[in-house]
Amino acid sequence: xxxxxxxxxxxxxxxxxxxxxxxxxxxxxxxxxxxxxxxxxxxxxxxxxxxxxxxxxxxxxxxxxxxxxxxxxxxxxxxxxxxxxxxxxxxxxxxxxxxxxxxxxxxxxxxxxxxxxxxxxxxxxxxxxxxxx
Length: 133
Fold this sequence. Notes:
The protein is α+β, with helices and mostly antiparallel strands. The protein has one helix at 3-22; strands at residues 34-40, 46-54, 57-65, 72-79, 82-90, 97-105, 111-119, 125-132. Strand 7 (111-119) and strand 8 form a beta hairpin.
């Protein structure tokens, strides 16, 4: 190659490099494979529910944020009407929140996922629903 061609090739490559850094990042599986919902609980706390596909299963994450550390919450995840997981979550510093993550079977058709948490020291309830698929 001549010096002129090398310079032109280098210039072309240097012009393309900044364009690639502006390209948006794409998550594996794309945005169609993830649904996120948020909402308020009955007495001031908030909830978040995420469902996404992962290796042929559904990854479900439920979160409660009350901004108060040390609260105990009884939670459960229902999948198409059946309890898939349940437990007790305790809000932790620094945010006064807890989260749970479980993997469940990705059934044929639309998956109906419900995350529910009830504060053990009051009647406060959080409930999020996602229809996935």
